[in-house]
Amino acid sequence: MKRMLSGIKPSGELTLGNYLGALKRFVTYQEEYDMFVFIANLHCITIYQDPTQLKSYLKNAVALYLACGLDPDRSTIFLQTDVPEHAQLGFILSCNTYLGELNRMTQYKDKAASSEGALSVGFYTYPTLMAADILMYDPDFVPVGDDQKQHVELTRDIAERFNNRYSPTFNIPEPLIAKTGARIMSLSEPTKKMSKSDVSDKGVIYLLDEPNIIRKKVRSATTDSCAAINFDPQNQPGISNLIQIVAACQDRSIEDVVATYKDYQYGAFKDAVATIIIDTLTPIQARYKEIINSELLEQTLMKGKEKAQHIARRKLEKVQRKIGLEIKKK
Ligand code: AMP
Ligand code: TRP
Fold it and tell me: Which ligand does the CA of 196 lie closest to?
């Protein structure tokens, strides 16, 4: 069975973008793959987080993973800091990464250009920790949204370098980017990604938003004056985003969605989109309510930790031995 691994960084409440771009796909993948999914809580603190709020984001994220259908009996679900080997391998890999490579990371460059305050060293080096998260488990595939593709490519370069410098140690993973749902945009600013760290939440649908809030947000989504339902992200980014959301929620092709709604007025189309989102999220919210205060959360993380750490310990020992960090006799 091929292995797949991905992480989510819950530095805010999870959004429809996280669901359509990541979680929903993980649930299907667990049928076919040995799936590893973890909460990247170390990645969260690369930008300061209020501790009480962070704790609640983390807990909600685990509950939402389960509510979306990830099955702890099938997938390995764990918290990054429950496996401290990640941080240690991260440091080792940072010693096999060049400054020039990190300087080229688009996410870093964008942040450095727009950041009013100072960026932390952790933010700068986080792609090497992400490489450790991945390479630790030798996955074949890493499903991510397209904003993370560059980091997975860097991971491949680091792995190849390490394998050449020492000897074959890491499997070289492939990034896996979905066609629909890969990049859900903000409803209010449809040229920007829908992101949980947006300052204004007008354009962001959270997985736990009430139906009336969802409808309100979709109704006020930015559109255009073309008065036609076309998939044309360049000229009609708002409408195209709504089409993409429907396609991803209902597992349909873009063409199929356009064919259904081509004669709709924008208002009616938005209402239809809102209903589809509500129908998608209502069952998830109901399961979330059952899970959030149950023992399933802790049980899941315990089980995940045990399995992940078993693999991580062996991998880290192997890496340290190859580098010459160990003093023990063979
Ligand atoms: P993040 O919220 O940036 O930690 O992302 C967690 C996962 O969800 C990653 O695989 C992202 O690429 C994916 N993701 C986040 N926001 C979106 C979005 N607006 N559209 C599609 N995928 C997204
Ligand atoms: N950096 C990813 C993000 O911001 C989260 C992440 C951390 C991740 N480690 C990972 C994703 C390993 C895939 C594999 O979304």
Answer: 1
CATH number of 3-177+295-323: 3.40.50.620
Catalytic residue annotation: 111, 193, 196
CATH code at 211-290: 1.10.240.10
Q: Is the CB of 41 under 6 A from ligand 1?
A: no
**7 CB less than 6 Å from ligand 2?**
yes
Q: Give, in degrees to the nearest 5, the angle at Cα 277 between 275 and 280.
A: 110
Tokens at 215, concatenated? 């409808």
Beta-carbon neighbour count of residue 154 at 10 Å?
Answer: 20
Domain ranges of the chain: 3-177+295-323, 211-290
Same fold, 3-177+295-323 and 211-290: no
d(CA 26, CA 29) in angstroms, rounded, equals: 5
Q: Counting atoms of ligand 1 from 1, which one is nearest the CA of 8? A: 6
Q: What is the pLDDT of residues 184-217, one digit of tens each?
A: 999 999 999 898 877 788 999 999 999 999 999 9
Note the pLDDT tens digit of each residue in 308-326. Answer: 999 999 999 999 999 999 8
